[in-house]
Amino acid sequence: MLSYRDIINKIDQLEESNILICSLELKVFSVLKKKSLSAHQIANITKTKVEGIEVLLRALTSMGALKFNKDLYRNTSITYKYFCESSPDFKRGTVMLKLDGREEYSNLLQTIQKGRDLKKFDDSDDPKFRTLFTYAMHERSDLYAKKIADLVTQNTIGKLIDIGAGSGSYSAAILDKDKNATATLMDRAAAIK
């Protein structure tokens, strides 16, 4: 059961989440790359007000998402690696999913009160969204696939049917552990490409 303090802490975390999501929307980490820039420079590039971007940059610095030295802001090794578009390790799918999720959660009250318009999902397959969604699933499975494979392969697998498999990263991790197992991936053709 969540305590009063737990509930307040969860609500407080929303503030930090909004700061991070806002920085992703403005592409602050991508603007910085591996450079050190002033708030004025970042404001010019992001087409924002200096006063506003300064508040955001200070908040990011206090959270440990940016470094600050002599009026210049810089990415940390983590924010550059995973959240800067020019990084080879940029988590493009995860970023898209988190930004998309923000819109979902921002409209949560309205959705609960009035329902959701499902017509926008009828017969639609947005290749750009699907590609980024697949990246996000890969990026997320990197965190869990080995652990799941370790658990699942405690017993002999034999044949595995992976429904909603997408690219099959969980099945691949299982097959790496159990060389005698086989897997059949099942998903929409567009998702398996």
TrEMBL record:
InterPro entries: COMT-like, COMT_C, COMT_dimerisation, SAM-dependent_MTases_sf, WH-like_DNA-bd_sf, WH_DNA-bd_sf. Signal peptide: none annotated. One of its GO terms (molecular function) is O-methyltransferase activity. Residues 16-78 form the O-methyltransferase dimerisation domain. Residues 124-187 form the O-methyltransferase C-terminal domain. Keywords: Methyltransferase, S-adenosyl-L-methionine, Transferase. It holds the Pfam family Methyltransf_2. One of its GO terms (biological process) is methylation. PROSITE patterns: SAM_OMT_II. This is Acetylserotonin O-methyltransferase dimerisation domain-containing protein. The lineage of its organism: unclassified sequences, metagenomes, ecological metagenomes.
